[in-house]
Amino acid sequence: MYNWDFDILWGYRWLFLNGTLMTIAITAAVIVLGLLLGLFAGLMQLSRNPVLRWISWAYIEIFRCTPLLVQLLWFYYALPVLTGVELSAMTAAVMTLSLYGGSFYAEVIRGGVIAVDPGQSEAGLALGMTPAKVMKRIVLPQAIKQMIPPLMNQSIIQFKNTSLVSVLAVPDLLYQGQVITMDTFRPLEVYTVIAVIYFVVLVPLTAIVKRSEKTLQRSH
Amino acid sequence: MTGTITPDNTKIEITNLKKQFGSNVVLRDINVKVDAGSVVALIGPSGSGKSTLLRCMNLLVIPNGGRIRIGHDTFVFDDGSKMPKAKAQAHFRSNTGMVFQHFNLFPHKTVLQNVMEGPLVVKRTPKAKAEQLARTLLGKVGLDDKADSYPDRLSGGQKQRVAIARALAMEPEVMLFDEATSALDPELVAEVLGVMRDLASEGMTMIIVTHEMAFAREVADKVIFLRDGVIVEEGPARDVIDTPKEEATRAFLSHFHTRNND
Ligand SMILES: Nc1ncnc2c1ncn2[C@@H]1O[C@H](COP(=O)(O)OP(=O)(O)OP(=O)(O)O)[C@@H](O)[C@H]1O
Ligand SMILES: [Mg+2]
């Protein structure tokens, strides 16, 4: 029978907290940057310009169709060989996760925009609005209703994906856990605590997503 | 390409207009002149190109050839030439109001905001002034009490009247109606036709695509019968509807009641 001993971890509580905050900070950054990238790529997909469409298509497919772990290692270890520019582990991590998330967000945003009745853009155009104004004032506000639940889901996945950055020695929650394990030789307790922390942060978030789906259905 | 020609009394002048979708030729060499303040009814079988012609007039469809003048704005199209710039297109459209079969009200905006949207965004009218204009127009279509409702709370007839007010808010020189009453329950048709009749009597230049032959006969000055992208017959409304010259027109009209009980 294994003898659980969580007491020993109490001395590491600040490391756990540090790691958790780092994970949350990275998540926040990659969500914001990813949404920006996704908005650009998603709208480029809908552009009349075939070059823009092709560029965004290539971007989306490259990042959707290769494993995130491979992308992280490539940006950290391979890109500097190619460009001669060293990226800090943090920069490489945030950049890769943002690009990866952006490629999924782009598809959500594109889908949300094309789901809006084309009659809506026609009505905006018929008033004399420019296509950019129509997108901003008529189409996107309606598309966002459909987009928010899948964007939130994707963001929850991003939160979990941040655990991969530990392979680049970015001091996130998982990385701190590895440090603590090497100190205490208590992997079972450490990784259990880490799993619980992820769980405790995400359960309320998924509840919010569920709730927002319902309120959005009813709102204007 | 915008230019200025001093117009006589014609408000709309369409010359040699052509449109095809791929290999499907939808409009072949259309010529139409519409006098200022007159009402033209565009009739014809399904697929004859009525909507396409109407949508060419506000560039929702870009023609492959010909020329369109509305008021002082002219666009010339030919297959080789580039599409007009987005800004120029938008400016051209702001001078024509369009009313759609399915209303296309903005569901995320209130009735008042729907009507204010054009002046606010396109003309940059100050908010207070845009609101005043919108309330006046809503009064005109009999919906002042619905200003703060959202479109999903309105009946079809009310929606279409809001859509008319929204188009009028741009103070366009021309109003285009594409089967404005076709999606309505029969008992709601009259309220929309009533608003259109008022507009016509106020001297608005209007082109209406319609299957309401009795209304066309009563309100339109001119009727144009379109079939397979060609104008088969045109003339004063009563002449064309009561005594069509062409067999095709006669055959088409035989499917309709062309008179109210008068
Ligand atoms: N965007 C489009 N792309 C391809 N073909 C089109 C498009 N719009 C219209 N057409 C074709 O052009 C032809 C004329 O269509 P249009 O909508 O102008 O007819 P209509 O006279 O308005 O018919 P209805 O009475 O059914 O509304 C049809 O064959 C239609 O399939
Ligand atoms: Mg039509």
From TrEMBL, chain A:
User: Which organism is the protein's source?
Assistant: Tianweitania aestuarii
Alphabetically sorted, this entry's keywords are: Amino-acid transport, Cell membrane, Membrane, Transmembrane, Transmembrane helix, Transport
- Protein's UniProt name: Amino acid ABC transporter permease
Main location per the UniProt record: membrane
| Pfam family for this entry, one | BPD_transp_1
Q: What is this entry's stated membrane topology? A: Multi-pass membrane protein
| Alphabetical list of Gene3D superfamilies matching this protein | MetI-like
Family stated for the protein in its record: Belongs to the binding-protein-dependent transport system permease family. HisMQ subfamily.
The membrane-spanning stretches of this chain are 20-42, 190-209
Any idea where this protein resides?
Cell inner membrane; Cell membrane
Q: Where is the ABC transmembrane type-1 domain?
A: 20-209
TrEMBL record, chain B:
Topology relative to the membrane: Peripheral membrane protein
ABC transporter domain boundaries: 12-253
- Please name the source species: Tianweitania aestuarii
Question: What does the similarity note say?
Answer: Belongs to the ABC transporter superfamily.
Could you state a single Gene Ontology molecular function term?
A: ATP binding
Q: What is this protein called?
A: Amino acid ABC transporter ATP-binding protein
InterPro entries associated with the record: AAA+_ATPase, ABC_ATPase_HisP-typ, ABC_transporter-like_ATP-bd, ABC_transporter-like_CS, MetN_ABC_transporter-like, P-loop_NTPase
Any keyword RNA-binding? no
Task: Tell me which UniProt keywords the record has, alphabetically.
Answer: ATP-binding, Cell membrane, Membrane, Nucleotide-binding, Transport
User: Mainly resides where?
Assistant: membrane
Matching Gene3D superfamilies: P-loop containing nucleotide triphosphate hydrolases
Query: Where is this protein found?
Result: Cell membrane
